[in-house]
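sanity check this record:
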Amino acid sequence: MNTTEVAIILGVSVSTVQRWVKQLGLPMERNDRGHYFFKDEDIELLKNIKEQLQNGALLQDIAPVTEKKPSRRGTIKNVEQEQTIEFLMTKVKELELNLHAKADSVTSYQLLQHRREIEDLQAHITGLNKKVELLEQELNTLKAGPSIEKPYVLDDSKVKRKKKNFVSSFFGF
């Protein structure tokens, strides 16, 4: 029987039956949906509890039933199932360790790559800074204005002149 049917038989509410089962720790079986279902001996036990409560006993004073009934719908654990579960658990742990190790190695590799990139960028920036300094120096020399112009000096200070023709020198051309 379900909880509602038992409550009608006992003349109490559904929540009262559920409270007695929970507070006294009664070993009632449950169906697939988790609802209590009661057998005839369970109903007799609940009738006994109701009588004790009507005679003035407190719910806390009623001795809870500690004997657990074997479940009719339960499955018997198989040694092979337990070994399989243990094997699967060890495999899962191994996979987790491998995953963590792989993540660590990937992170280390990425950090090294970033470090190399940063070093390359720093070297490039240093080179650019040197070029900027050189350009600034050249700009400063150009802004300073023209310095005293140096006379053009020819090789060995000798000027090569074209010899005039005898006839042309005679007439002054």
Notes: The helical segments are 3-10, 14-24, 40-54, 79-143, 166-171.
